[in-house]
Amino acid sequence: MGGWIGVDLDGTLATYDGWNGPEHIGEPVAPMVERVKRWLAEGYEVRIFTARVSGDRQGMSPNLTMRVIEIWCQTHIGQVLPITCVKDFGMIELWDDRSVAVEANTGRALSPSRRGLG
Known about the structure:
The protein has 118 residues and is an alpha/beta fold. The chain has a domain at 4-83: 3-Layer(aba) Sandwich (Rossmann fold). The protein is 23% helix and 14% strand. It has two helices and four strands. It has helices at residues 30-41, 62-76, and strands at residues 4-8, 45-49, 83-84, 91-95. Strands 3-2-1-4 form a four-stranded parallel beta sheet.
């Protein structure tokens, strides 16, 4: 299968109750973890798409951050997934708790903004 599916970590794949440091990742969100496992079984490439690896937080070691996410993936998904904070032309979908879907080439929102923006 061509392309990859991006899945946000905090608030989408794992519960998120606020920032508790790079070593803490919340408990798995079961329906999303099962969806990711299904996609993998169907042959899709799935990547963790997270700002945690963007380098925006002071004091975060990129190596530690990646390792913590890899361990979480192995524990809860059964394999380590690629981790990125960068979109490219191979991304076919993005699953994220902060995204608002927009109809291509129109600017029309297909899902409501949680903050009433728009």
